[in-house]
Design brief:
Layout (H helix, E strand, L loop, with lengths): L2 E2 L7 E5 L4 H8 L2 E7 L18 E10 L5 H13 L8 H4 L1 E14 L6 E3 L1 H6 L4
Antiparallel strand pairs: 1-2, 2-5, 3-4, 4-5, 5-6
Protein name: CREG-like beta-barrel domain-containing protein
Pfam families: CREG_beta-barrel
Organism: Penstemon smallii
Length: 130
């Protein structure tokens, strides 16, 4: 699933509430998680992305639809469309696409055969991302 955090650490998604279960379920039950593997950075070499030697970062939180007529809604759309220009051609009205964000509640990191490590949400959100 394509997403962007636009340097905020909070992932934004462009989801439909009619064609895909993720957006539809989020409207009813906002609990969600997103796992991101180090493989996406190109730093795992030939390791399998499922290998514990290839780090994984998981955000557990609330997947919330962002109101489109707000500053945050405009920010989310702009960030998503900049990162994924193909979204611009997706039929918003007929397919009910909306911006969602995953608000972090818990974070953990699996790194190189070590036990999962919980990370501070406060420190994570306070970090200045690129």
């Amino acid at each position: 699933m394509s997403f962007t955090d636009a340097g905020t650490g909070v992932p934004y998604f462009y989801l439909t509430t009619t064609l895909d279960p993720t957006g539809n379920f989020a409207v009813k039950d906002e609990r969600a998680s997103c796992a991101i593997t180090e493989k996406q950075l190109g730093t795992c070499g030939i390791q399998d992305p499922q290998s514990p030697g290839c780090s994984k970062f998981t955000i557990i939180g609330k997947l919330i639809m962002v109101q489109t007529n707000t500053t945050e809604g405009a920010f989310g759309e702009s960030a998503l469309f900049s990162s994924h220009p193909q979204f611009l051609g997706w039929p918003k009205r007929t397919h009910a696409f909306d911006v969602f964000k995953l608000v972090p509640v818990r974070l953990f990191l699996v790194n190189n055969f070590k036990p999962p490590r919980r990370l501070s949400v406060k420190k994570y959100l306070g970090y200045k991302f690129l």
